[in-house]
Design goal:
heterodimer, A: about 150 residues, mainly alpha, 3-stranded antiparallel sheet, 7 helices, about 10% strand, B: about 300 residues, alpha/beta, 5-stranded parallel sheet, 11 helices, 9 strands, globular
C-alpha cells in the first residue's frame, strides 16, 4: 500500500493498481487509461488558444488547468492525438488521480510520483520524463493561476 | 526463400528495389510462411492500439538498445529477440511504423548490423496503411520460436563512431536534424524534450538536409528523381562518395541512411548513432554555429 500522506487517496489507488500488476500488464493498464481520457468540453474544442502545449512530451500534449477562486478546486483538461497512446495514458492517470482536488493538495504531490507507477523499466526512463513534465506543468499552472483572497 | 521483389514502377527507379514494398504487395502476401511483418514505432503502446494482422512489435528502446551500456544489443540478444518474434535467418522481414517510417528505418538499420539478409520497409508506413483502410487488428500473434543463429554485430560498414567522424573530415557529412538544431538555436527537435546536449550547432562542413525531406506528404519516399535533386544536386553528393549521416541519437539519420544506401545506391554510407547527444557533449571537438556549413577543420584524426 502507498502510505505517503502527500499522495491523495484517488491517486494512491491508481498507483496501487499499477503496483499490483506484472510489468507487461502495467502497460495494458496504461493503454486502458489512454482509451478513457475524457474528451474536451466544447468550449475548449472551439478555443484551442486556451490550451497550452507541453513541449517536453514527445508527442503533442495540450493542457488547460482551471483553478476555482481562492485556490479551490482544480479542473484539468488534456488533449493528445489518438496516435500517442502513451502520452494519452499519462494524461489520463493524472486526470483520474488529480482532477477535482484542491490546489494545495496537488501542489504537495511528490515530483517523483510518476516513478511510483513502476513503468520505468517497461517504458524506459526517457519516456517517463514526459509524465514528470506534465505533472510539473500542472503545478506551475496552478501556482500561476490568479489568486483571489 | 526470399520473397519476390515488388515490381512497382516507382520502386524500379531505386538502386535497390528489393528493399521496399508497397502496401498492396504486402496485403497480398500477409500470412505467408516466409514473411514476418514487424511494427516499430516511437510510441511504445501504438502497436497495442492496432497493427497489421500477424505483425509483431519491436521497440527501438526496450528491444534493440542495451539497457546498461549506450550501445545496441549483442548477437545473442538479437538471436533471442528474432526467435521470440518467429523470425528465421532466411525470413523476409518487412518493417513499418509511425512518422514516415522513422523508427522502422532505425530498426531496419539495426537488423542490418546483424546482417539479416532480407529486410525491407513498407512504403508509407503505418499511417498510409490505415488511411487506405487496409486490414488492421488488435489481436496479437503467438509466433513459434525459431532457431535463429547467433551472428556477431558488424558495426564497421554502416556505423560510425566519434573517432571515425574526426577521421572523416574532408568527406561528405549530412546533418539530418531540423534547421534550428543545425544552427544551434536548439539542441533537440522543435517541441521535443531537451536531452542534455551541452553545446548547440553542427559538425563542421556538414550539409543540412532535414530527414523528412525524403518523404512525401503521405509518408512514402519521394521518387528517385526528387531524391537525386535533393541529395546529389543540392547537397552535392557524388557517386563513390563516402558519407556519414547523423542526427540527435541516430534514429532520423537511419531514415536518411536508408535513402542514400538503398534508394540512391551509395555504397559507403554510415550512420553516426552517437550523433548530437555525443558530439554536443564531447570535449574539444569542433562545432560550427549558424546556418553556414563551415570548413572541414585540419589537424583532427589521421589528417
Amino acid at each position: 500500500m502507498t502510505t505517503d500522506q502527500a499522495v491523495p487517496a484517488q491517486l494512491a489507488e491508481i498507483i496501487d493498481d499499477f503496483q499490483e500488476l506484472d510489468e507487461p500488464e502495467r502497460l495494458q493498464l496504461l493503454l486502458e487509461f489512454s482509451r478513457n481520457l475524457p474528451a474536451l468540453p466544447a468550449r475548449l474544442i472551439d478555443h484551442p488558444d486556451l490550451m497550452e502545449q507541453v513541449v517536453e512530451c514527445q508527442t503533442p500534449l495540450f493542457l488547460t488547468v482551471e483553478v476555482a477562486p481562492g485556490g479551490g478546486e482544480v479542473q484539468l483538461f488534456f488533449a493528445a492525438p489518438e496516435e500517442a497512446p502513451t502520452t494519452r495514458g499519462f494524461a489520463a492517470v493524472l486526470h483520474e488521480g488529480l482532477d477535482g482536488l484542491d490546489a494545495d493538495t496537488i501542489l504537495s504531490v511528490p515530483d517523483d510520483m510518476p516513478d511510483r507507477l513502476g513503468l520505468s523499466r517497461a517504458i524506459t526512463p526517457l519516456r517517463m520524463r514526459g509524465m514528470s513534465a506534465m505533472l510539473g506543468r500542472i503545478k506551475r499552472k496552478i501556482r500561476e493561476a490568479p489568486q483571489s483572497v | 526463400m526470399p520473397m519476390a521483389v515488388d515490381s512497382s514502377s516507382k520502386f524500379s527507379e531505386y538502386a535497390h528495389p528489393e528493399r521496399i514494398v508497397s502496401a498492396q504487395w504486402l496485403e497480398e502476401r500477409l500470412g505467408s510462411d516466409d514473411l514476418v511483418v514487424v511494427e516499430s514505432d516511437e510510441d511504445i503502446l501504438l502497436y497495442e492500439v492496432g497493427h497489421i494482422p500477424g505483425s509483431v512489435k519491436v521497440d527501438w528502446h526496450t528491444d534493440l538498445n542495451d539497457p546498461v551500456s549506450r550501445d545496441y544489443i549483442n548477437g545473442e540478444q538479437f538471436a533471442a529477440l528474432m526467435s521470440a518474434k518467429g523470425i528465421s535467418r532466411d525470413t523476409t522481414v518487412v518493417i513499418y511504423g509511425d512518422k514516415s517510417n522513422w523508427w522502422a528505418a532505425y530498426a531496419l538499420w539495426v537488423f542490418t548490423l546483424f546482417g539479416h539478409e532480407d529486410v525491407r520497409l513498407l512504403d508509407g508506413g503505418r499511417d498510409k496503411w490505415i488511411a487506405e483502410k487496409r486490414p488492421f487488428t488488435t489481436e496479437k500473434p503467438t509466433p513459434e520460436s525459431t532457431d535463429y543463429p547467433v551472428c556477431e554485430r558488424r558495426d564497421e560498414e554502416i556505423r560510425a563512431f566519434l573517432p571515425d567522424v574526426l577521421n572523416h573530415f574532408g568527406k561528405p557529412l549530412i546533418d539530418v536534424r531540423s534547421p534550428q538544431e543545425y544552427s544551434g538555436e536548439r539542441t533537440t527537435m522543435p517541441s521535443y524534450p531537451e536531452e542534455g546536449a551541452l553545446r548547440g550547432g553542427h559538425i563542421p562542413s556538414a550539409a543540412s538536409v532535414p530527414w523528412g525531406r525524403a518523404a512525401a506528404e503521405d509518408g512514402t519516399f519521394r521518387s528517385r528523381t526528387e531524391l537525386d535533386a535533393i541529395y546529389r544536386e543540392e547537397a552535392g553528393l557524388k557517386d563513390d562518395d563516402d558519407v556519414v549521416a547523423y542526427c540527435r541519437i541516430g534514429e532520423r539519420s537511419s531514415h536518411t541512411w536508408f535513402v542514400l544506401k538503398h534508394l540512391l545506391g551509395f555504397e559507403n554510407v554510415r550512420n553516426y548513432d552517437g550523433s548530437w547527444t555525443e558530439w554536443g557533449n564531447a570535449v574539444r571537438v569542433p562545432i560550427v554555429r549558424g546556418e553556414e556549413r563551415g570548413e572541414a577543420p585540419k589537424g583532427y584524426g589521421r589528417q
